[in-house]
Amino acid sequence: IKMHFKCRNAEIPYLNSTIKRLLVPDEKVNWSSEWSSYQATDYTDPSTNGKPWADNDDLSAMRFNALDGAVNRKSHQVDYAFDVNGRPLNPMGRTGLSGRGILGRWGPNHAADPIVSRFKDGRLQFVAIKRKDTGEWAIPGGMVDPGEQVSATLKREFGEEALGGKAAQMEKVWGNGKQIYAGYVDDPRNTDNAWMETVVVNFHDSDGIMNDVKLEAGDDAASVRWVFVDANESLYASHQEFINLLKKAHCI
Ligand code: RP5
Ligand code: MG
Ligand code: MG
């Protein structure tokens, strides 16, 4: 996964705000690169305070790099470090913004991304949704709820965002999951102290089951459609890299 491009953009304001990131040059992304005067813009979206899915500011009560009650604070990739205030440090380096931003958790925020794919006229395609927040096309992923199995998140989010919340005859497709990635996501919401991680699972339909499933956008999705992988459309966060892994898995 390419590090810190989408979550280092100092040109555009941070999501739902007028806040801008401090510009972090390429050679200063790594924490090990000396920058003693580094002072990122500090921002935690006030609308997240008190939300059931959001942490409070009492970091001393949290068990980091561990399963903290039902909340998974373990990274898929590393044991992360902390800054002088005890805030988790983004393992991929500086983003120019400290605090939680709009994310709910200090440290890793766990998501799951279902890639439902098939061959159409000999070309590989997958189900994509248009995100309401940034307007970008994306895999219909979502956050893992506390205590939720990732396998359940994958089905739930696909149902909510791509099937309009309606249950469909997809059992056979769900039985077919192959994990293609687990780790960090270069998500535009990431900060120095809070970041997205995901598990990407491919559900490939080789039996034409999806031919009878009606796609319908719902929840955080404004629209939904099949996208050919060779169309090379630009996608949200690291999703193009996940599609590259999908192509590899299907020998393309
Ligand atoms: C991305 O954000 C993940 O890859 C996943 O697609 C998504 C989860 O967040 P929401 O869709 O719930 O905003 O980093
Ligand atoms: Mg969702
Ligand atoms: Mg989503």
UniProtKB/TrEMBL annotation:
Identification of the protein by name: Nudix hydrolase domain-containing protein
Matches recorded under PROSITE patterns: NUDIX
Cited CDD domains: NUDIX_ADPRase_Nudt9
InterPro entries per record: NUDIX_hydrolase-like_dom_sf, NUDIX_hydrolase_dom, NUDT9
Molecular function, one GO term: ADP-ribose diphosphatase activity
Origin superkingdom: Eukaryota
Gene3D superfamilies in UniProt: Nucleoside Triphosphate Pyrophosphohydrolase (3.90.79.10)
PANTHER family named in the record: ADP-RIBOSE PYROPHOSPHATASE, MITOCHONDRIAL, NUDIX HYDROLASE
Domain Nudix hydrolase: 108-249
Higher taxonomy: Eukaryota, Metazoa, Ecdysozoa, Nematoda, Chromadorea
Organism: Pristionchus fissidentatus
SUPFAM superfamilies reported in the protein's UniProt record: Nudix (SSF55811)
